[in-house]
Specification:
The protein is an alpha+beta fold and 197 residues long. The protein has 3 helices and 14 strands.
Length: 197
Amino acid sequence: MALPQQSHVEYSYADYISWDDQERWELINGEAWAMSPAPSRLHQAVSARIFYALFDHFKDKNCEVYAAPFDVRLSDSPDTKEADDTEITTIVQPDISVICDRKKLDDRGCIGAPELVIEILSPSTAAKDLKVKRVLYEQHGVKEYWLLHPTDRIAMLYTLNQGGEYGKAQILDCNDVLTSEQFEQLRIELTSVFIDE
């Protein structure tokens, strides 16, 4: 994928929405990141299973669950909703997003931090998900960030503490039951999420 040609280095959402629909990008602090080719079968199987578990849990509640491709626009503006397209320089497409504040939803996706973001690790995106996006989601106040590793069959859960930091991840293996600090009744048996290759 060739980077869309612009006369400046820092891109915004206004640039992003003008690019070719056939290519998927994320913007992180104005820097364009090409999305990898179609995910592996194992990635998609884990994604489908965790999405179904979350969709089933939230179906009678106020939260909405969305799977990629789904744009999440993040802004450093105190009122993200008021930021115009040229001021938003971070747009990500998490594998799964849970949004409980419906005012953050519009026809273009979500504007502001979801309550929960899940990324499913693959070799081409693992470094970005583990380092760059963890810092990004922490800075923007994503209350819980889960990383699922389909091959190793482990989950890493980050939860914002009172100081607005993630701290150390909780590590779970495929035999554990995933529980959420934010959503007290949410319980997911990881044996139902992770599959044998």
